[in-house]
Structures are given as structure tokens and as C-alpha cells.
Amino acid sequence: MSIALSRKIINTISIVGILISIALTIYFFNLGVFKDINALRGLVGDSIILGPIIFILLQILQVVIPIIPGGISSAAGVLIFGPFAGFIYNYVGICIGSIIIFLLGRRYGKPFILSMISDKTYNKYIGWLDNQSRFEKLFALAIFLPVAPDDALCLMAGLTNISVKKYVWIILLAKPLSIFLYSMALIYGGSFLTGLLG
């Protein structure tokens, strides 16, 4: 499969995922689940095991295949499961997904990576790979702070000589802050907008 075709398939999946997310948001808003936290939690069922497992799998999936924006799903996790459990489930799912895309990038190389990210993003960050030591520092900083395209950098890390062990440690230690900031910003930002529109 050519890069152009696989990129078109990924982009189509992403667009469909965003449209479904918008439709579900409107549907859930009409049901009043954003005003009633118990109704929101009821969406994942009463099972204390199945609900978190489904959510973690969705988080892994949204990292590997960008079906829905990661920030939205992170905020949803905190709203549905509460701040502590939601953060843990977000952390587990996103870390596993980040490790999977790194391994995919390493296994299938540049053609696979270019099918997942734009040429613009690839060209913007490919210079980071020129110096291994510099890349590891920049990569750790980018994962720690929610300012760079994490998933693209995780894919591109597969093109470097970074060991799997070091990569995993960077993800495990650097991801918590960005996950926390994304979740809180979307939750409190949403509450602020609701108050304005209210």
C-alpha cells in the first residue's frame, strides 16, 4: 500500500471519528449527561471492571489510530471516573498506546510513519533525530510539556537508536503532567464555557 493511500485511509478514519465525537457530544448534551455526573458515569455501565477496561482500550486505540482527539477522551475519563481513577486510566491507556506506536514506527519505519503523520510535521521534527543525545532530551521535554505532537514524536522516535527501555521510562515519567494538564484544562475550560452560556 502506498503512503498516499494509507495516509488517505488514516485521515478518513480520523475525520469520521471526529464527526462521530461531535454527534455523540450533541446527543449526550441533549440527554443532560454533562449536567448530571451520575448520568455521565452511567454511560460506561455499573461494572467497576468492564467500564475502566473499555475506557483504557479506547485510550490505547485513540493513540494508535487518531479516531478522537486525545484531549477530549482524557477529560472524559476524569469526568466519568473521577479525578484520581480517571487520571490512572488515562495514564495507563495513553502510555500503552505510546509504546505501541513507537514499536510500530521502529518495525515499519519511515513509510509507515509518513502514512500516519503529515509531511509538514515529519519535516518539522526530523531535524531532532540528527543528534541522538539531543533528541532524547528534546523528546523527554516535549512529552513532559503538552506543547508538541506527542504521538508524531513517539512514532519518529522509532527511527532513532533509543532503547526500548529508555523510551518506556521517558513515557512513564514524563506523561503524567501533560495528561493532568490536558484533562484539567478541558474540564475547567468546559465548566467556564458552560457558565458563560448558562
UniProtKB/TrEMBL annotation:
It is found in: Cell membrane. The chain crosses the membrane at residues 9-29, 49-68, 80-104, 138-160, 167-188. The keyword Iron-sulfur does not apply. It comes from the Bacteria. Pfam families: VTT_dom. Residues 68-185 form the VTT domain. It is a multi-pass membrane protein. Keywords: Cell membrane, Membrane, Transmembrane, Transmembrane helix. The keyword Cell membrane applies. One of its GO terms (cellular component) is plasma membrane. Its main location: membrane. InterPro entries: TMEM64 (IPR015414), VTT_dom (IPR032816). Belongs to the TVP38/TMEM64 family. This is TVP38/TMEM64 family membrane protein.
